[in-house]
Design a protein that fits this description.
The complex is a heterodimer. By secondary structure, chain A is an alpha+beta fold. Chain A contains 2 helices and 8 strands. Chain B is α+β, with helices and mostly antiparallel strands. Chain B has a single domain, classed as 2-Layer Sandwich (Alpha-Beta Plaits), CATH 3.30.70. The chains are: A alpha+beta, B alpha+beta.
Amino acid sequence: MTSAAVSSGSASESSAVVPVADSVLITRQGKTSIAAVVVEKIAGMATREISGVYKLGGGAARAFGAIRERIPGGSTNLSQGVSVEVGERQAAVDLELTVEYGVEIGELTKAIRRNVITSIERMTALEVTEVNITVNDVHVPSDDDDVDHESRVE
Amino acid sequence: MVSVEDSPALADVIASAAGSCPGVVRLSGAVRSYLPGRTVPGVVIGPDHVQVNVVTGYGTPLMEIVAGLTAALVSFLDGRALWVSVDDITLPDDPIAAPATASGTSGARAR
């Protein structure tokens, strides 16, 4: 369910970029490290850019992905609906979101995945290995007064 | 006796050069250089490396910003390696926080 093979050409931006350890990209003259929160913000931004996304998060806030370690040595950053793991030169993203009612969810998630991968790879030169998307909720316009759902059964 | 306070420290010079690089919003307070009576946020100078912690804007690839930082700082490195840590990015709808305190280190706005 992941599409990681994006040849963005970002690997050839700096001469002699040698990936080594711990979200660190080493150049001939030094190294660059990118905090997980940076990747998280980029992923969140890329997700919100797709119309049809009502909001990130919503529904029960689960520690999605915090237990599994998909990338050896990766660090995790959790925020409202966006969880990322950043490793040596790769990143994995988990998204939880609420969609607008009437949206074709299959197409929406494909578009989100594409935009998230492209944005992260272009901006950080990290390879995105997976983008998992959970649609938690649907926003119906009449929900806007945020009334608690009353149970019809006891 | 020449007062040490009169001459800008290397940390100030580096902070100023880094802060005015395109794409750098400000220096990050995660690390600091400790000078008499004040600190310089975002810069640490070691015997064989210089570390710069920055907050960047959204939009420009980070590797380009790093290349810009490297070019701007190479003359101050004196052979030391440059470590760049991108600690945060400012999204277009974020309020731009005030520049890091102390010693006039004001970052350039990202465009």
